[in-house]
Amino acid sequence: MSNQTLERIARNKNVARAAARQLSMEQLHKLAEVIGEVIEQKNDEEKRRQEEEAQKARKLAEIREQINEAGLSLEDLVPDQPKRKRGRPPKNAKDADKG
Q: Which CATH class name applies to 3-75?
């Protein structure tokens, strides 16, 4: 079954019913079990990702607080970026300006 087929089934209840008619009750129960496991796994992954983001935000806040307590600013920590040198102009730049 392709990804497009699963998306169609997920978006449209009638398509899902038509696909389900082709399966036996045993197959439908197994499918429901597998989908339940996939949903649980995705929920766990999402929770883990949110926890990691929250931990990162806490660490960032702590670092900012320490910087402020030390009397520094973020600009003090980041050196000035070197200015980019411009690349060569297009070969026909002079001709384009004339035309």
A: mainly alpha
